């Protein structure tokens, strides 16, 4: 199953998220994911594993397991490269690391412009801005960055462009000046953070939605995220467990189907082959209206990935 993007391309509804996939196992994990049927891979400069992702993809390509045009590879522009003169430079680094000729989708990772850090000084730079652990910013309007993204679509390096972690107000403003609409908005999305109005508006504009952290706090436990540590896991929530038992599915499959049934793409991560298969096969059952109503009651507007915790950056305030 796939979503037809406003750029004319098809994006798989279920993909594999590469955040926190460690370098030691990454290439093999990507290769095995392709082998069992995954076709969408969601990467980012900031994840620091682009080389290994590329190794797994290219191994599969070299062995003829899949053709390049059967894969959908996403990456993201990190905050340090928002200045228009650095956008294509950042893309070229991604393509070089992955040993790919093009990306299927390139997203602005966050609506935040950090001070530029030369690639040869530190890559990926993370929060480093050339001054220890102190974050510095650049006065680069989002529309300027977006215009540079639009130019990339005129090359052979990028098929579609999009945004991530943008709020409705930022999207409204961006659309007023954009020549090319974002093809995709990627957001944190799970029963504790449902954002129904944002999703309704974005989809009404012909922009596809991809959910990350579909399992809620689960993605953030290993990071010792205080909110995640203090929140019951969705896998153990009675509502999710009861629905999973009704359909003889795992709680993870219920959480993923809750998204895909509303045409929201998903990018779950797992290093376990059995769970990889389970996560891929989530579209063979349908939740009822009553199921959706019960899950709707779980919404706490609880966000785990919030730049306010980085440096009091108020994008979600």
Automatic annotation (TrEMBL):
Its EC number is 1.1.1.307. Substrate binds at residue 109. The record marks 76 as: Lowers pKa of active site Tyr. Pathway: Carbohydrate metabolism; D-xylose degradation. Keywords: Carbohydrate metabolism, Oxidoreductase, Xylose metabolism. InterPro entries: AKR, AKR2B1, Aldo/ket_reductase_CS, NAD(P)_OxRdtase_dom_sf, NADP_OxRdtase_dom. One of its GO terms (molecular function) is D-xylose reductase (NADPH) activity. This is D-xylose reductase [NAD(P)H].
């Amino acid at each position: 199953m796939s979503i037809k993007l406003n750029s004319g391309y098809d994006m798989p509804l279920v993909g594999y998220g590469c955040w926190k996939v460690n370098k030691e196992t990454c290439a093999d994990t990507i290769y095995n994911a392709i082998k069992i049927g995954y076709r969408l891979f969601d990467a980012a400069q900031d994840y620091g594993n682009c080389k290994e992702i590329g190794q797994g993809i290219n191994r599969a390509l070299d062995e003829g397991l899949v053709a390049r045009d059967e894969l959908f590879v996403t990456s993201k522009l990190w905050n340090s490269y928002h200045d228009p003169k650095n956008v294509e430079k950042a893309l070229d680094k991604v393509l070089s690391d992955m040993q790919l000729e093009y990306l299927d989708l390139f997203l602005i990772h966050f609506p935040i412009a950090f001070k530029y850090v030369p690639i040869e000084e530190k890559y990926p730079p993370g929060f480093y801005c050339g001054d220890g652990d102190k974050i510095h910013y650049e006065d680069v309007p989002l529309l300027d960055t977006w215009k540079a993204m639009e130019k990339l679509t005129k090359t052979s390096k990028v098929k579609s462009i999009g945004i991530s972690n943008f709020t409705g107000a930022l999207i409204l403003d961006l659309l007023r000046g954009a020549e090319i609409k974002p093809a995709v908005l990627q957001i944190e999305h799970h029963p504790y953070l449902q954002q129904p109005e944002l999703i309704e508006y974005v989809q009404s504009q012909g922009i596809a939605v991809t959910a990350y952290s579909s399992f809620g706090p689960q993605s953030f436990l290993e990071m010792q995220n205080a909110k995640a540590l203090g929140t019951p896991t969705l896998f153990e929530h009675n509502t999710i467990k009861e629905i999973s038992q009704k359909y003889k599915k795992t709680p993870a499959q219920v959480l993923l189907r809750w998204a895909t049934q509303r045409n929201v793409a998903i990018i779950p991560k797992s290093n376990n082959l059995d769970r990889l298969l389970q996560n891929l096969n989530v579209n063979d059952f349908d939740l009822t209206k009553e199921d959706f109503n019960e899950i709707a009651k779980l919404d706490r507007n609880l966000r785990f990935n919030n730049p306010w915790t980085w440096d009091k950056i108020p994008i979600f305030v």
